[in-house]
From TrEMBL:
InterPro entries: AlkB-like, AlkB-like_sf, ALKBH3, Oxoglu/Fe-dep_dioxygenase_dom. Residues 187-209 are annotated as: Disordered. One of its GO terms (molecular function) is dioxygenase activity. Signal peptide: none annotated. It holds the Pfam family 2OG-FeII_Oxy_2. Transmembrane segments: none annotated. Residues 109-207 form the Fe2OG dioxygenase domain. Keywords: Dioxygenase, Oxidoreductase. It comes from Actinomadura miaoliensis. This is Alpha-ketoglutarate-dependent dioxygenase AlkB. Coiled coil: none annotated. Residues 187-196 have a biased composition (Basic and acidic residues).
């Protein structure tokens, strides 16, 4: 009786931080040597993390050349290079946990953290692979933690074919691995519904962008 009650209390009072990876990670093989790993509800204390990041991160608006025009990038950004101090200790904990779980398979640590703030359902990221760096030629991994409003991440093979949809919820982890950056593309489409804000944290190895 007593221990059952304690169990339920401890479950709801889960200490803030990443929960276990291990057996709770589900791997989905894709074509062409790509795969994704899914670990829903990975982050305990995601509410407070979201609020802290919203205020602590120096969010930047960017503008980019598109053909003959300069357009606003439809999300706010922040980038933490490998020597930069992350804006929240929970992001360090998450990085350490990812490194413990993936180091052997990845062969190197995750080092950088890119952050995106999707202010509402109109913010988005167009179809792309993370191919600015080594992801264009080598297998690698990009690990994404999602907090705040749920949004869909779409994936489609570059060789053609229909898109897969993964709904990323508050505190969820998705890892794109293998050849995913060069043989597949991903996007966060605008959401028709009036969505609240979402923050995505992307961990990448050195030289992957
Ligand atoms: O918001 C996300 O989860 C994806 C962001 C992304 O694809 C990128 O920044 O390269
Ligand atoms: Fe990306």
């Amino acid at each position: 009786m007593e221990s059952a009650l304690q169990g339920s209390i401890f479950d709801s009072w889960d200490e803030a931080g990443p929960r276990e990876l291990g057996q709770s990670v589900r791997r989905v093989p894709l074509t062409h040597g790509a795969w994704i790993d899914l670990r829903p509800n990975w982050i305990a204390g995601a509410d407070a993390l979201f609020e802290r990041l919203l205020t602590a991160v120096p969010w930047r608006a960017e503008r980019r050349h598109m053909y003959d025009r300069v357009v606003d990038v439809p999300r706010l950004l922040a980038f933490y290079d490998e020597d930069a101090e992350l804006p929240d200790p929970l992001l360090d904990q998450a990085k350490r946990a990812l490194n413990a779980h993936y180091a052997e398979e990845l062969g190197e640590p995750f080092r950088t953290a890119g952050l995106c703030l999707y202010r509402d359902g109109r913010d988005s990221v167009a179809w792309h692979g993370d191919t600015i760096g080594r992801g264009s030629t080598e297998d690698t991994m990009v690990a994404i933690v999602s907090v705040g409003a749920p949004r869909s991440l779409l994936l489609r093979p570059r060789s053609g074919g229909s898109a897969l949809r993964y709904d990323l919820g508050h505190g969820d982890l998705i890892v794109m691995g293998g050849s995913c950056q060069r043989t597949w593309e991903h996007s966060i489409p605008k959401s028709a519904k009036d969505s609240g804000p979402r923050i995505s944290i992307q961990y990448r190895p050195r030289g992957v962008r």
